[in-house]
Input
Amino acid sequence: MKDERLYGLLDITALGDLDTPISILNWTGEIARVCRATEGRFMPAAICVYAPLLGAARKGIQDLPIPLAAVAGNFPSGKAEPSLKSIETRRAIDAGANEIDWVIDRGAALFSQGQSVFEEVCIAREACGPIPLKVILESGQIEDEALLYNMACYALAAGADFLKTSTGKIPKGATELAAQIFCTAIAKTNPTAGLKVSGGIRDRETAVRYIDIFESQTGKTAHSGSFRIGASGLANDLLRSAGIAP
Output
């Protein structure tokens, strides 16, 4: 896989506690510079930030057609009343989010053996309307493989467009096992849905392994509408490999 194609699968992410409008403006401006310098060959699938920083991100990319994603659902814990998470999501969309990464309340999922995931994602789906919805299951916290599979199926049945492995905010991010479980759920429950892997994916070799898992288990080709990687370090690694200063 060519580096520019791999770069085109990235949700380049800035979700730091100390992010500011100025830092996001400068960061997205650099992404835009690379995109223009390569005549669009190195254009990410999306840029993901906190909702209050969407305006700065939009200003940084100017007129480039890069979707902006916002995290929602009381990221990263997921602990909030679903009605409040819904309000947060609508506000993010009003602020310019083109995609939503919604984090599930994992405690509720454990208590309900996954049933709460269906109820919560139904609320998320309604709040998002036609906006793509990526549901974060934080697979690194769910040790029960059967429960994780059930959570994935519930999320898909309720309308998730993507299953996402991780917030990137806990030590254990994406794993190949979680990706395999999610791909099985996608193949059996909603073959049109996609997969987003995030958390700890920092080099090309790791990214390609996840793409191989996705394509072999779902029978689909990885493209920005079916497969995403949440990362920033990987973006810089790909640019360096291509001889483009990040």
